[in-house]
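Feature request, filed as a ticket because there's no other form

It would be nice if the structure record came with a short human-readable summary line next to the C-alpha cells. Right now we just get the raw output. Example of a typical job, pasted below so the devs can see what we mean:
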Amino acid sequence: MDHPALAPDPRPGDGASAPSPAWHQPWPEADASVLAPVAEHEDLRKVVRDILGAHADHEQVRRAADGPLGYSAELWKLLNDEMSVGAMAVPEDRGGLGVGLGMVAVVLEEAGRALLPEPLLVSAVLGVRAVLAAPLGSIPGELVDGLTAGHLVAALATGPGADASLAATGTDGALTVSGRVGRALLGATADLMVVVADSAGGEALHLVDLRHVREAERRPLEVLDHTRRQAAVELVAAPAHLIAGPEHAGAVLADLDVVRRIVLAAEHVGMIEAMLDLTRTYLGQREQFGRPLASFQVIKHRLADVLVDLERARSAARYAAAVFVQDPGSAELPAAVAAAVATEAVIRVAHETVQLHGGIGFTWEHPAHYYLRRALGDEAVFGPAHAHRALVAELLGV
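Raw output as currently delivered:
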C-alpha cells in the first residue's frame, strides 16, 4: 500500500552533506475530531437498540440460534425493511443509502451487544461489499437487489479458515464452480456464497448461486458458537458469476479484509459493553457478608480493568471506521490495530465475566457463556489477536 511521503527524515544521520531521503509513515494522518461524538450516530444507536431490545433479548436470541435457519427470519426482515441494513453502505448511485462505514459500525456495535445471530456482518456488510466490487452489470441485478434488500443471504468462504479447494470453468455468462469448502459461515442455509476459485489465469473471486445446491451437499459442522453457524459445502458445477478476475481479486480481498477487521472490532466493542453492564448489575445485586459484591475493592479493580478494555477497543474500532470513511486506502493499519485490540479485549472480558458471575457464570445456558463462545468462535474464524499484531508489525516494518 502506498503512503504519503513526509519531509526529509529529521533524525540524526551519518553526517553526510546530502539530505536524508524522504521517509514514509504507514499510519494515517487523521484529526482527533474523528473520535468526537456524532449526533447522527447516537440517533441511529438509539433506534437500533430499541428494536433489538424488543426483539432480541437473550431468550429470543437463543431460540433463533437454535432454529432451522440459525437466526430469526422475522427479525432479519424487520432489520432490512425498517433499517435497510443491507443497503446502508451501498452508494446512492447504486440504489443504496450511502451512509458509510461509520454508521454501519454503529449497527454492528448494537448487534454485538445483543449477540445477534442474524447475518449482518457476513451478508449485509461483507457479502454486499464483495458483490459491489464486481463491474457494473456483471452480476445479475436480481442477485444484487435481493442481497441488498435482505431477500437473499450470502455466505462467506474466503481466507485460510475456509479450507477451500475450488476451480472455476466456463466463460462469462456460463461460469460454474466445483470443489469443496471445508468451512463456510452460513454455508448450510445461504442463497449465495463468495468464494476464491482457481481459473485459467489464476485465483479469481466468484459469487456462487447455492439455491440449487442439494441439501445433502451442505454438511452443518459442530461449532462452539451456535450464533454463527458453519458448514462444509460440496459444489458440483454450481452456477457462478465473476466478481474479480486474477488481476483484481487480490485488491478486492484486501479491501474485504480491512472492512472485516473494522466491523468485527465494532461487534466486539458492543459485546464488551454488554458484558460490563451484565457483570456490574449482577455484582451490585449479589451480596456477601451483608454487602454488595461490587463494594469490595478487589472487585472494583477488576471492573475498572474491564472498563479500560472497553475504552481501548472502542477508541481503536471507531478510529479505524472514521479513517476508512475519510480515506479507505489508509485504513489498513488502523483496522489491524482495532482487530488486535478488540479481539484480545473481548476474550479477556468474556473470561472475566464468567469468573465474576461465580458458579452461575459457568453454566452453558447463562448469557456470560454465550458471549464467551462468540468471542472464542470469532477468534477461530477470523484470526487471533497475535495474527493481527503480526500484521501491524509487518505494516510498520518491525
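Something like this underneath would help us a lot:
The CA atoms of residues 162 and 183 lie 5 Å apart.
The radius of gyration is 22 Å.
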